[in-house]
Design a protein that fits this description.
This protein is mainly β and 348 residues long. It has 2 domains: 168 residues, Calycin beta-barrel core domain (Lipocalin), CATH 2.40.128; 157 residues, Beta Barrel (Lipocalin), CATH 2.40.128. Helix content is 3%, strand content 56%. The strands form 2 sheets. Strands 1-2-3-4-5-6-7-8-9-10 form a 10-stranded antiparallel β-barrel. A 10-stranded antiparallel barrel has the order 11-12-13-14-15-16-17-18-19-20.
């Protein structure tokens, strides 16, 4: 079977900031240490209710968290079993990291219900606070989680407000540290809700692939040849496409690793692409199909300058990628062709 490297979705946003980051301190920010309390294996119990006057139901959970990408991020996998309330567990993957550019603690998250988000994390006297605002069934939904970390245990309280209603305790539980990981994460995780139809268009991208191309870090610099290997696979019952990328060493720069996921956002009617790399960069990008092209766009800040990036993956009628180009606009400058690559067939 023919396989191709779909590197554009991770490499383009990651390679350029990675190369630039070599001019800065390459180690994790000291602020990242706040997330280290999450590292380990956990079991939890608690209860939840869907409305202020609804009866409470019990849940059990297992979680595991580890440091990844050279210590720049903590990856946390959480599986919540609602018993008779739901046939499959609700599973989420959270990436916690400190963003040196914005000087904020952030959580990038996706789950087996199709959700994908990025949230700011705040700290208050040993408590980890995260707030989210979204729309659910046509109503405003606001959630506020409070995690109180105390050594080998922590409590988690989630408050929720729907529409114009008052805030109520949606979920409350306690977690205890365990010596070994639960076996739940060693097997295929089913969907909590059926995957969106749009995710099936990514099925041709599953596999382990190679690519080759070049990039320019700035208009005044020469082209730099790059090659990498990327492995992609559907997880969470098809609700997300997970991406792991390892670049070949670049002379004078070194090698890097990137991770990410693509999921469909029903709320925004586009794909959401989370990308992280071993220089500590994390980005959430929007993407969608334009004819046979998969177009990824993002707007961010680098070195205090606004940067707009557009990546176009040209695909054939079957959805197999053929070529990729990236254009970047920095500050008030002109668009610059900063990356160009082609998909190379790899033999098993």
């Amino acid at each position: 079977m023919r396989k191709f490297q779909l590197i554009a979705l991770v490499t383009i946003p990651l390679l350029t900031p990675f190369a630039k980051s070599q001019e800065e301190a390459s180690g994790p920010a000291k602020e990242q240490a706040r997330f280290h309390k999450l590292i380990g294996h956990w079991q939890g119990t608690g209860e939840f209710r869907l409305a202020p006057d609804a009866p409470a139901s019990e849940w059990t959970t297992v979680a595991t968290a580890r440091s990844i990408l050279g210590g720049h991020f903590v990856q946390e996998d959480v599986s919540i079993d609602f018993g008779a309330y739901a046939p499959n567990p609700f599973v989420m993957r959270n990436y916690y990291g400190y963003d040196k550019e914005s000087k904020k603690w952030l959580m990038h998250s996706f789950n087996n219900m199709g959700g994908v988000s990025v949230s700011e994390v705040l700290w208050e006297e040993g408590k980890m606070l995260i707030g989210n605002s979204t729309t659910e069934l046509g109503q405003l939904l606001i959630e506020h989680s409070i995690r109180t970390l105390e050594g080998d245990s922590y409590t988690m309280e989630i408050r929720r407000a729907v529409g114009s209603g008052e805030s109520f305790v949606h979920s409350l539980g306690i977690f205890e540290r365990q010596e070994v990981a639960d076996a739940s994460f060693a097997k295929d995780i089913p969907a909590f809700m059926p995957a969106a139809e749009q995710m099936s268009k990514l099925n041709n991208w599953v596999g382990s692939f190679r690519m080759e191309g070049w990039m320019i870090m700035s208009p005044a610099m020469p082209k730099m040849d790059i090659m990498a290997t990327e492995t992609m696979g559907m997880i969470f019952g098809g609700n997300a496409l997970e991406i792991v990328l390892v670049g070949d060493p670049i002379p004078g720069v070194g090698s890097y690793e990137g991770r990410g996921a693509i999921a469909w956002s029903a709320l925004d009617q586009c794909y959401k692409n989370i990308v992280l790399d071993s220089s500590g960069k994390a980005t959430m990008m929007n993407a969608n199909w334009v004819g046979n092209d998969f177009v990824v766009g993002t707007y961010k800040t680098e070195a205090r300058l606004p940067v707009a990036i557009q990546t176009t993956v040209a695909c054939d009628a079957k959805g197999e990628p053929k070529t990729v180009v990236e254009y970047r606009v920095t500050g008030n400058g002109e668009p610059v062709l900063s990356f160009q690559g082609k998909y190379v067939e790899k033999k098993d």
